[in-house]
Amino acid sequence: MKDSFRRALTTGSSFLIGAEIVNTRGIVSSTTSLLALTQDLLSDERIAYISLTDNPGGHPKLPPDWLARQFAEFAPNIILHLSCKDLNRSGLESQLWRYAAEGFDNILALSGDLPTDGYPTLSSRVFDIDSVSLLGMMTAMNAGLPVLNRKGTLERLPTTNFFAGAAVNSFKSNENELMPQYGKLLKKIKSGAEWIIPQLGFDMRKFSDIQAFLEHHKLSVPLIGNTYVLTKTVAGMFHSGKLAGCVVSDSLMQRIEKYATGADKGKQFFRELAAKQIAVFTGLGFSGIHIGGLEKAESFFELIDLADSYSADDWKDFYAEIQYGKPNEFFFASSDTPVQQKRKKSVFDVSPFYRFSRFVHAVAFKRERCLYPAIRWLYRFLNKQTPVRRCAAKILHQIEHSSKFFLYSCSDCGDCGLPDTAYLCPMNRCSKNQRNGPCGGSNDGRCEADDKDCVWTIVYDRLKHFGEWDESVSAPSICYNAALKGTSAWANLYLDRDHSATQ
Question: Is 431 in contact with 425 (CB distance < 8 Å)?
């Protein structure tokens, strides 16, 4: 009997091969072939695990645990994806309790794709929390989640045994798009991620760049490589940016169009590209490989056999061959651009208005500095419930919201993130309300929704200019308190009600 995914990964006993399976939408005859595919993969000793997706691309499908429950005896070798796009934190916690109760402990925590479908029209976005907070939730559940019982006293719930993983997207062209990805990766690891799967691309330098980043920070978290057996149609979707987190560059698309005119429509090229990537991941010292894009068990096995047919040192040639990147891409570390040289200050978007915001924050909102003690006294005075003081507090809240709406498009969330995100409101400037760093879906600096620039690129430029990016990354993660919606963020700050009270 094969080792569990957790044991095999943590002991490093072998290079793990995993298969991604995408569920169907609806109860249709194709579920029969889906069950057969899953059975064949889990029964083969070469497949260390299967990975079940959670509504990829924003399309509703059968949930991953439906398929997993058909093969409960293989639970230690099944990874369930769990994303934040369709459920709020209560729904996510409920989902996790069910997974734990049924023995499914391997969870890949994701922020998730923007919804692209729904009945009868497009569904709304949830994103109550992000992948960092979801990882934090699993860590808390593993330790025994503290809750108030009916008597009002604190008790800890039974512990869970989640083995949580996370994703990172290194396929970003510019420094201000890549470094926030890596910054969020550090937060994910700090919040409990025990293994990492990079998102998809076809430039092996970008995968080894993640290794360089982790080595720089002296982190030894297992990395599982990622490959996908393309077709011309799927490659075209990746190339267009229609599938977030999946990148096919212009140079690769040109080769694909050339091979797709052949008799086999490029099938051999696509298989060899994936097999060569597997060889490179093995040579680089990754812990395993995550294979997607195949619908038959035989296709997985043929791909594995092809990868095994290469000699031990072939991966070095393949590494040099598979570099389908974009021109002038930024890398965290490379031989010709040392890390130190890349940390020069940026001058982008450091406007007089942002400087003014920083000045006001330093004078009035920085703890124990300048006006902070006096204003805190005022809010404590107004917090005492008398009609006059309640009226005064209400007027102050109206002044606060009006000014912040005019200056920052404030949504009156009550748990203000402006100081943490360089005075760019994460509740309206980010399509997924990300407070701990970007999702992986941006494309050349544009938001996945393609309606604005990714706010985290601007946040990075602003904070880096003042030498504050590293401090921002090392700060505690933020989980928005929805109970404060519609209340005074100023009052909540000075009365220690918001997230900053625990930082």
Answer: no
Residue 17 Cα distances to 56, 247, 254, angstroms: 21, 22, 29
Half-sphere exposure of 447 (CA within 13 A, CB side): 19
- Given the DSSP bridges, would you call strands 146-148 and 154-156 parallel, antiparallel or unpaired? antiparallel
pLDDT of 133 over the 70 cut: yes
pLDDT at 336: 46
Amino acid (one-letter) located at 247:
V
Within its chain, how far is the Cα of 458 from the centroid? 19
Say if strands 163-168 and 106-110 run parallel, antiparallel, or are unpaired: parallel
Number of alpha helices (DSSP H) and beta strands (DSSP E) in the chain:
19, 10
Q: Which domains does the chain have, with CATH numbers?
A: 5-321 (3.20.20.220), 352-502 (no CATH)
The answer to whether residues 163 and 107 touch, using CB atoms and an 8 Å cutoff, is yes
Question: Collapsing DSSP states into helix, strand and coil, what is residue 109?
Answer: strand
For the residues 373-385, what does the mean pLDDT come to? 93
pLDDT at 296 over 90: yes
Query: What are 407-452's pLDDT values in tens digits?
Result: 999 999 999 999 999 999 988 899 999 999 999 999 888 999 888 8
Tokens 């008398």, residue located: 386
Instruction: Report, in angstroms and rounded to the nearest whole number, the Rg of the chain calculated over CA atoms.
Output: 24
The C-alpha atoms of residue 108 and residue 4 are separated, in whole angstroms, by: 16
Q: Give the residue with greater pLDDT, 372 vs 337.
A: 372
What are 38's two structure tokens? 């899953």
